[in-house]
Amino acid sequence: MLKERLLSALVGIVLFFAVVLSDTVIMNLAVAFVILIALFEFYKILGFSRDKKVIVAINMIIPICFAVGKHMDTSFFRFALYVYMVLLLSAMVIKPEHIKLYDIAAAFFVTIVVCVSFIHIAMIRQMDHGLKLLWPVFVGAWTADAFAYIFGSLFGKHKLSPHVSPKKTVEGAIAGVLGGALCMLVYGAVLSYIDPLVLVQWPQLGILGLICPIIGQMGDLAASAIKREMCVKDFGNILPGHGGIMDRFDSVMFVAPAVFYFITLFPIAVWP
User: Fold this and answer.
1) Residues 174, 206: contact at Cβ < 8 Å?
2) Per residue in 246-263, pLDDT tens?
3) Cα separations in angstroms, 264 against 137, 176, 222, 270
4) Cβ atoms 187, 162 nearer than 8 A
5) Under DSSP, is residue 204 helix (H, G, I), strand (E, B) or coil?
6) How far is residue 85's CA from residue 82's CA, in Å, rounded to a whole number?
7) What pTM, to 2 d.p., does this model score?
8) What is the pLDDT of residues 101-111, one digit of tens each?
9) d(CA 137, CA 173)
10) d(Cα 122, Cα 74) in Å, to the nearest integer?
11) What ranges in 2-143 are assigned the alpha helix state H?
């Protein structure tokens, strides 16, 4: 089991760096692939199989269109969203005996949340200096997860949300926020070192370093609440020993939009 987890993690890390360091076309395709897998995982736990496969097929429109488009602000994408809504509602007419309003509402909510959230990763990558500005998404999400897990396991005594995720603790959550903020400052120091011309905006970066872990942990708890309600341990098993895409990217899904809008309003670095 441990060997499987380590091998899966190693392969995942290699693929992660290969995609992040690639051009925007590869990034778009990778984001679209992640969206597709995440949607399949959601649809599986929602029970969208057999008689409801038409919903699954319709919901592939958004990520596929994104893969060939630029980003969600284009008129092409807005048109795709319109077609998607029409087809989704038409599914109730095509198979009224199997597809109900609940199915349409659940599919629409999941698709919009997953697609809109993950698309912000590619939108950051497409910004000026996007490669350097993309790292806060993963630093803010994953380092906070690591600090929360380690310190929660060692020192956690007070349950953070026992009905949602019994293993998460208040001590771990606090360590996650502080550790994530510290790692964000380390990111700023590394950015200054590799690019001496950049002027890092330390106050903004520090604030972002506090915001990301809080939002990321909320995303983690939200994903745990969904799994608990649907009575599943993991969203999937595409990552052996680690679960599904949503199990690894639940915090990233929440953090990416926060980073995009924060750095748009409050730049964390200024280039000459």
Assistant:
1) no
2) 888 889 999 999 999 999
3) 14, 25, 26, 12
4) no
5) helix
6) 5
7) 0.88
8) 888 888 888 88
9) 18
10) 14
11) 2-20, 24-46, 53-58, 61-68, 75-94, 101-125, 130-138
